């Protein structure tokens, strides 16, 4: 029974791990990957001499940190609000609606963004800026707005998902704590500070550490498709994933793409191990392994 | 405390309604723009007020355009085949692993689990699938790479088997002379419908929404799934914009689908999700919470 699945996992997951060695090779398709000559650390030397190496690392980490901080605050806040709502129907409707953005593909998200920001026919240029007498903005070629746009889009898409996880934890907090607190005359603020937040503490820490362990990875579509692969935005939207893709598919610079990919895999792996180690220190049961 | 309670609840609803609108507005813009007449769109841009209702975009897409119908076909095929295969493979992995007496259980578990920690990444995977499996421009490119079996789903299903199916049930079936495959199909599966439905929906959704495999491995347009088609059409807009600014856009714009059609295709891409989602909402929510707690 186990054989078909194990074969698939071996091919799909383990062979590419071995394939990481191409970061140390100069690939020549004609003689094949295995016979291509070894070049030692050459690919890495080239990669780290470029300006992009710094840009993509900085972008990937800074965007992820922003998502973690803002995303957590909003998701926890909304989960608490949701928990305050007594009407079942209303609560369920809110839950359904805020999860919706999570279910659609990033390609469709890029259409939604385009509907607002398109230079000629976008809603913002035509229906907000024009009545105010402001000249239309060419959004897809103005880099300074994009850090905000990327963050808003990312939060819009993901806050419902983490909110549901936090809400599920909140529902599990024993109601008698709150009853006792009300009898003691604790205000809503005090209840939140002394019951709700401590109840959420361990799940917040776990989800945050999970995100930190993925800090070297980014949602390819968010950084490639949503800014429509616009050249003017590349400095501000290039992450390790988009860099690897462009190196592979557009520039045919396999050496650098594989070096960047290798860098991502190894550092990502170290971060997962580290994050798990820390989770284990805080709460044995929540550790991944 | 009791006095301000009502005000507090009104405020809570107020914030939640605001958030709900924030989540829904972009979809409204998409939908309304797709049924607005082309002239109105060119004049006023995408807008929440449909100045001239016009279904031409949909008529064009569903009758005159082969690509959209074809892409729908590809997506449905890939979603169905991919989801069924995925669930079968996941069950075949998860069931033996849920048995404590299985020899080498820990080794296999680690073999699966390690793929969650470490991966070769895009470049080696791409080379393997294209150079050795020659998967480029075949329908399998949309089904096989990366998505057929994931460690996460195996672990979720195994956890369900171990915690929701009592050993006594399996023991009883064994005493009655059932073989392992009979036990799996006649006893375990009927008891596992909730997890099958949850995983099936999540896997189906990821196949429906997948465009990366299409982007990496497919260049022939008869193999475009709906998401890949959407991706290509948006890049064409960009192409149009960049050429229009250098003064050669006029004859190109006749070929590229018009402003309303772009939004109409996107609507067709999300419509099935929007339609089924409210009915299966609880499965999605369950999938997320179970995955987060047990994963």
TrEMBL record, chain A:
Keywords: Cell membrane, Membrane, Transmembrane, Transmembrane helix, Transport. Its main location: membrane. It is found in: Cell membrane. The chain crosses the membrane at residues 61-82, 94-117, 145-168, 198-217, 254-279. Residues 57-275 form the ABC transmembrane type-1 domain. The keyword Lyase does not apply. Signal peptide: none annotated. It is a multi-pass membrane protein. It comes from the Bacteria. It holds the Pfam family BPD_transp_1. The keyword Membrane applies. One of its GO terms (biological process) is transmembrane transport. One of its GO terms (cellular component) is plasma membrane. Belongs to the binding-protein-dependent transport system permease family. This is Putative aldouronate transport system permease protein.
From TrEMBL, chain B:
One of its GO terms (biological process) is transmembrane transport. One of its GO terms (cellular component) is plasma membrane. Residues 72-280 form the ABC transmembrane type-1 domain. Pfam families: BPD_transp_1. It is a multi-pass membrane protein. Keywords: Cell membrane, Membrane, Transmembrane, Transmembrane helix, Transport. InterPro entries: MetI-like (IPR000515), MetI-like_sf (IPR035906). The chain crosses the membrane at residues 12-35, 69-95, 107-127, 139-156, 187-208, 260-280. Gene3D superfamilies: MetI-like. Belongs to the binding-protein-dependent transport system permease family. This is Putative aldouronate transport system permease protein. It comes from Paenibacillus taihuensis.
């Amino acid at each position: 029974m186990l054989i078909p699945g194990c074969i698939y996992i071996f091919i799909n997951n383990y062979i590419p791990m071995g394939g990481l060695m191409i970061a140390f090779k100069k690939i020549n398709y004609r003689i094949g990957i295995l016979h291509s000559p070894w070049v030692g650390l050459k690919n890495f030397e080239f990669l780290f001499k470029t300006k992009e190496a710094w840009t993509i690392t900085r972008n990937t980490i800074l965007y992820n940190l922003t998502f973690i901080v803002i995303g957590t605050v909003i998701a926890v806040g909304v989960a608490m609000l949701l928990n305050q709502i007594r009407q079942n129907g209303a609560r369920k409707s809110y839950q359904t609606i805020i999860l919706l953005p999570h279910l659609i593909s990033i390609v469709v998200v890029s259409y939604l963004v385009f509907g607002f920001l398109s230079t000629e026919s976008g809603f913002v240029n035509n229906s907000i800026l024009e009545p105010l007498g402001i000249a239309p903005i060419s959004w897809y070629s103005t880099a300074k707005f994009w850090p905000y746009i990327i963050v808003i889009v990312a939060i819009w898409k993901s806050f419902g998902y983490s909110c549901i996880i936090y809400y599920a934890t909140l529902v599990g907090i024993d109601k008698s704590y709150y009853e006792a607190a009300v009898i003691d005359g604790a205000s809503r603020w005090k209840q939140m500070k002394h019951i709700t937040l401590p109840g959420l503490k361990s799940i917040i820490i776990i989800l945050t550490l999970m995100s930190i362990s993925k800090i070297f990875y980014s949602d390819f579509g968010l950084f490639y498709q949503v800014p429509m692969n616009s050249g003017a935005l590349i400095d501000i939207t290039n992450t390790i994933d988009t860099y690897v893709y462009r190196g592979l598919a557009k520039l045919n610079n396999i050496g650098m793409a594989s070096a960047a990919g290798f860098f991502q895999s190894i550092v990502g792996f170290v971060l997962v191990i580290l994050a798990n180690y820390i989770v284990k220190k805080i709460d044995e049961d929540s550790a991944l392994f | 405390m009791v006095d301000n309670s009502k005000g507090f609840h009104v405020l809570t609803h107020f914030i939640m309604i605001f958030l709900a609108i924030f989540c829904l507005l972009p979809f409204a813009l998409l939908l309304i723009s797709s049924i607005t007449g082309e002239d109105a769109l060119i004049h006023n841009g995408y807008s929440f007020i449909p100045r001239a209702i016009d279904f031409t975009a949909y008529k064009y897409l569903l009758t005159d355009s082969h690509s959209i119908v074809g892409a729908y076909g590809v997506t449905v095929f890939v979603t169905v085949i991919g989801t069924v295969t995925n669930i079968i493979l996941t069950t075949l992995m998860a069931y033996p692993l849920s048995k404590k007496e299985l020899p080498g259980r820990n080794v296999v578990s680690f073999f699966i689990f390690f793929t969650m920690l470490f991966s070769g990444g895009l470049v080696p995977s791409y080379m393997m699938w294209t150079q050795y499996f020659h998967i480029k421009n075949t329908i399998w490119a949309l089904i096989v790479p990366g998505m057929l079996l994931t460690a996460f789903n195996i672990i979720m299903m195994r956890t369900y088997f171990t915690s929701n199916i009592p050993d006594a049930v399996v023991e009883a079936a064994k005493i009655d002379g059932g073989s392992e495959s009979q036990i799996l199909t006649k006893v375990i599966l009927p008891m596992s419908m909730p997890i099958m439905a949850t995983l099936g929906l999540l896997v189906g959704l990821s196949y429906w929404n997948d465009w990366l495999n299409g982007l990496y491995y497919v260049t022939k347009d008869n193999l475009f799934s709906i998401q890949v088609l959407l991706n290509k059409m948006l890049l064409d807009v960009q192409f149009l914009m960049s050429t229009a600014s250098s003064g050669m856009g006029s004859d190109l714009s006749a070929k590229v689908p018009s402003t309303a059609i772009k939004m109409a295709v996107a609507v067709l891409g999300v419509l099935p999700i929007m339609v089924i989602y409210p009915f299966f909402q609880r499965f999605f929510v369950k999938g997320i919470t179970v995955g987060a707690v047990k994963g």
